[in-house]
Design goal:
- The chain is mainly beta and 733 residues long.
- Helices cover 14% and strands 43% of the residues.
- The strands form nine sheets. It has a 16-stranded antiparallel β-sheet that branches.
- Pfam families: Peptidase_S8.
- Keywords: Hydrolase, Protease, Serine protease.
Length: 733
């Protein structure tokens, strides 16, 4: 039996020299022919006829092999030549020439080559007329599959009939030839695209091909649509009421401009399901080009699942002989093939945690890295998280940029600090209470009268103990600015990067006198919070305090900050999570000067070194060094107080972050990674200079003002300098 073209021929002739940009150089060719020694699993010799293989330097290594079994082909046409890989003459096995009767085959091949992904054409001539034998059509499927075709196109009707179980061609059983689309290409198979035909009738078959379910689930039947997929052309065949045909049926435009066999740069407007089918073949090739690991069943099902159902026919259930079949399914099957939708991710994109795509992963939406002020802008300005791969539910990789998931949480909002001082005068007047000669309580109330900090001091012989508590975003009541009695300054509000994430911080400090002018000081605190997402931090310090002159005290010591899932207050989640261990080792010097009741001053310098483990994309942070300094000076009388503050917040002097970033995948599912190292030293160095003045004109009135100048806010040299001023008036009644 012979089958006719599923096209209605030329509708309008358009003569052009377009598509010149797609021409390429044919680097040479080599010929082979006769029988091949390769065999199919069905047994028997695979017969290729006169085969010609082309060396095509214009094609990349990732070009998707697309097989077309059709009439002849104009191989020199600019729409075919750049993509040509091999030709096979199955119609006349002794003749390598496949260019005779080239009208239909040239049209079909040019449309299949017009893909969003690069293709390599394998063209098999099976007829020299408008019809082709069924056995040769079925046989060509196995040949093209064995030749590596990932997509096979038959723009002939009648491809829905299952060959008889004993039917064969040149000793190859035809059912076995069809089944090669299941096992070829190392098990990835071939997408088999066929035209529905142009009789304007429901599809039917005496022995339906879905009797081979493994073949059928790799098959796509294509009808011709109009109106952007809203309706079917009257001449196109359609699924009808058969749910099996509906399940594998797609539509594509009935008309398309395609290569014309009468000239190397000539194009015509063609029509028919012969034109519709290769458009879907091009879509399948585009998917495989981007994700060659997908097998034929996955690719074909993806096109079916993402087909557009925007036709109003899907809202009607009045079709079929009994008037109860959904009209969209009846005429359009699964809908209009939509390659753009098919290329979109399925499900949520995720980052793999291990070596394989199908292993553990975390969704990108959960990826977040919040850096403390110490980090500055270095990571945000780097390209460490750009052009990386994330994977959808089908294991397809997409290029993503996670740079926007990195945020600096530096307290650069001066308005917040101004509010802290302006809303209440309580921070300027701590509440104190004594419980005997050696026990005292100090409470710092906030704007809502709730305490923001407190300390309980007690003495037992040569040992002094202090238990303290403060809100994570409030100053430490045992810090140098607070213990020196410095008037509240904007520079010292907002808490430390290490504590700002916690609801509260609790700790204890001990001071053991070793002699009249020497004491051993130990201090430990731990943060607590309900929304820290696994982040934890604690700090221990040991120091020796020397009274140098009765007015000047030097305290020198060492400390250690231990953080869980963080480092220097930075915290990551999901794909940007930090590991369980973050360590910073500290060295600290502090000077306190108090010659009399009017003058008080302090200076602090602290340097740290450390590292942190990574947990996902962030492999770790190493070679970390930090520094921090603060200076405060105050002069006071009964009615006046003048203060000066200089401060550089904690800053990374150096550090290197190592990222193991996924950049792709192999066909067997292994994740390809790239190591990226990023220096974390920021571009700037924040420096705060502040003047404060307070005046009491009478016992009930207090005037205060603060003026702060900030250079390189957030250690960002590109950030504009900041200037803030606060004037407060307090009158008690």
């Amino acid at each position: 039996m012979e089958r006719s073209f599923a096209a209605r021929g030329l509708r309008v002739l358009l003569i052009a020299t377009g598509l010149a940009g797609t021409t390429g150089h044919l680097g040479g060719c080599s010929s082979g022919g006769g029988s091949s020694a390769a065999t199919q699993e069905a047994g028997g010799e695979v017969f290729r006829g006169a085969a010609t293989y082309y060396r095509n330097d214009a094609l990349g290594e990732d070009a998707v092999p697309v097989g077309i079994a059709d009439s002849g082909f104009r191989l020199t046409h600019e729409a075919l030549a750049p993509y040509l890989v091999a030709t096979y003459n199955l119609h006349d096995p002794g003749d390598p020439d496949v260019t005779g009767n080239a009208a239909h085959g040239t049209t079909v091949a040019s449309l299949a080559a017009h893909s969003e992904g690069e293709v390599g054409l394998r063209l098999a001539k099976i007829t020299d007329s408008t019809a082709a034998p069924d056995d040769l059509l079925a046989y060509s499927v196995g040949l093209l599959a064995d030749e590596g075709a990932r997509v096979i196109n038959h723009s002939y009707d009648g491809r829905l009939e299952l060959p008889h179980s004993e039917s064969s061609y040149r000793e190859v059983k035809l059912r076995d030839s069809l089944e090669r689309i299941v096992t070829a290409n190392d098990g990835l198979g071939s997408v088999y695209v066929v035209a529905a035909g142009n009789d304007g009738e429901p599809l039917e078959a005496e022995t339906p091909i879905h009797g081979l379910p493994m073949v059928f689930e790799r098959m796509l039947i294509v009808g011709g649509s109009e109106g952007g997929g809203t309706s079917l052309n009257d001449d196109s065949n359609f699924p009808g009421a058969d749910a099996q045909w509906q399940s594998r049926f797609l539509t594509a435009p009935w008309e398309a401009a395609a290569a014309d066999h009468r000239g190397d740069s000539l194009y015509s407007l063609k029509a028919g399901t012969s034109v519709s089918a290769p458009q879907v073949s091009a879509h399948a090739a585009a998917i495989i080009h981007r994700w060659p690991h997908l097998d034929a069943a996955e690719v074909s099902q993806l096109l079916l699942d993402t087909a557009s159902r925007h036709s109003p026919l899907y809202a009607l259930d009045t079709c079929g002989s009994d008037g109860t079949v959904n009209c969209g399914l009846y005429y359009l099957g699964q809908g209009e093939a939509d390659v753009e939708a098919a290329l979109e991710p399925r499900g949520e994109l995720s980052a793999p945690l291990g070596a394989r795509v199908d292993g553990a992963s975390v969704p990108l939406s959960a990826a977040s890295l919040q850096l403390s002020q110490a980090y500055g802008d270095a990571l945000g300005q780097s390209a460490a998280l750009t052009d990386m791969a994330a994977f959808d539910a089908l294991g397809r990789d997409y290029r993503v940029d996670l740079s926007s998931h990195v945020r600096q949480t530096a307290d650069r909002d001066l308005a917040r600090r101004l509010s802290r001082l302006a809303m209440t005068d309580a921070p300027r007047r701590p509440l104190t209470a004594s419980f005997g000669p050696s026990l005292g309580l100090t409470v710092v109330p906030g704007a809502d009268a709730e305490p923001t900090a407190s300390r309980l001091d007690g003495g037992f012989g040569g040992l002094r103990l202090t238990a303290f508590r403060f809100d994570g975003d409030a100053p430490d009541p045992t810090g140098p600015a607070q213990e020196s009695g410095l008037m509240p300054m904007l520079a010292f509000q907002g808490g430390s990067p290490l504590t700002r994430r916690f609801d509260t911080v609790s700790g204890i400090r001990s001071e053991l006198a070793l002699s009249d002018d020497m004491a051993l000081v130990a201090k430990h605190w731990r943060g607590q919070g309900s929304e820290t997402a696994g982040y934890g931090a604690e700090r221990s310090d040991f120091a020796l305090a020397l009274d140098l002159s009765g007015e000047l005290t030097l305290t020198a010591g060492v400390g250690r900050v231990s953080e869980t899932r963080g480092l220097l207050g930075a915290r990551g989640t999901g794909a940007l999570a930090l590991g369980e261990r973050g360590i910073t080792r500290l060295t600290r010097l502090r000077l306190d000067y108090a010659p009399d009741e009017r003058i008080a001053a302090f200076a602090v310098y602290e340097r740290g070194e450390g590292e942190a483990d990574g947990a996902s994309l962030l492999h770790g942070i190493d070679d970390l060094a930090t520094d921090e300094m603060a200076l405060g000076l105050q002069w006071r009388t009964a009615r006046h107080r003048v203060a000066l503050a200089l401060r550089q917040p904690r800053r990374l002097a150096r550090a290197e972050a190592t990222f193991r970033v996924p950049v792709g995948r192999t066909r067997d599912g292994r994740v390809m990674r790239e190591t990226r190292r990023v220096p974390l030293a920021p571009s700037g160095r924040q420096r705060d200079v502040e003047l404060g003045y307070a005046f009491r004109p009478d016992a009930r009135t207090r005037l205060a003002g603060n003026l702060l100048y900030r250079r390189d806010p957030g250690h960002d040299a590109r950030a504009p300098d900041e200037l803030a001023a606060l004037l407060s008036v307090l009158r008690t009644f």
